[in-house]
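PROTEIN DATA CARD
Card holder: YCII-related domain-containing protein
Chain length: 79
Origin: Aquimarina algicola
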Amino acid sequence: MEKNIKLIWDFRGPDASKIAQHHETHLKEYIKSEQLLLNKTGHQDVDNMHSIAFMVVTESEMKPVRDALRPHRGQLYQE
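Structure generated from the sequence above:
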């Protein structure tokens, strides 16, 4: 079974939560336009000045998506 990778974008500052929510919208659009295998995205508030947006991709899709969207970091994803 192929591994899944969670690509993460960090946002900091007083508007971090709103920016992360907005970024997730663009990630969903990208998934649809590129017809990626997985359709998993989200946003999370780490604290009041730090939020993240993320998308989950398969290991085989990771490099092209990483090069196109330039996430800040990534990690293995397990449900």
